[in-house]
Amino acid sequence: MKRVICVAAVARNGVIGDGPDIPWSVPGEQRLFKEVTLGHTLVMGRTTYESIGRPLPGRTTIVLTRDRAWRPAPAPGSDAVLVAHGLERALMKAALHEGEVIIAGGAQVYAAALPLASEQILSIIPLDPPGDARYPEFAEKDWEETDREVFDGFERVWLRRVV
Which element (helix H / strand E) includes 50? Predict the structure, then answer.
């Protein structure tokens, strides 16, 4: 099985979103998301996909949804979007595509995938915004920090599962 990596921007208070919005704007953070995910397979929930509004170039996108009738709107000239109706099915589809499996949100998808993840790449945003979507809690003892980069307005932390 391919490595499963959770990539998220997380506020100090655990918030990752407020409705379809990200409750902050931190220059450079999305550029780093692109660098980390380019060439890999993104797995994300339907709401996250719809908030982005299109497939991200240079990445295979698999959208998780319980709605069996849901289909992505056609996006001319862009990469295809695959649909899966469960995380296990999404991981099976991801195995057929290049790169690692990148879990890209939202909260329910992170919660389902975190027990399977071998790594986390978290952008820590030094804010405590209100929001209705939170990154799942995890036992820090089960993870070791392998790298930390400090940027203007946030830190990026790389974690690897140790158990």
Answer: helix 46-52
Residues 6+ apart with CB under 8 A from 45: 63, 64, 65, 105, 106, 108, 109
Average pLDDT over residues 119-135: 97
Q: Which residue has the higher pLDDT, 98 or 136?
A: 136
Per-domain residue ranges for the chain? 4-161
Closest CA to 50 of 94, 86, 81, 95: 81
Q: Give the class (CATH, top level) of 4-161.
A: alpha beta
- Show the tokens assigned to 23: 């409750």
Cα angle 50, 3, 107; round to 5? 35
CA 98 to CA 40: how far, in whole Å?
6
pLDDT value at 107 more than 80: yes
131-148 pLDDT, tens digit each: 999 999 999 999 999 999
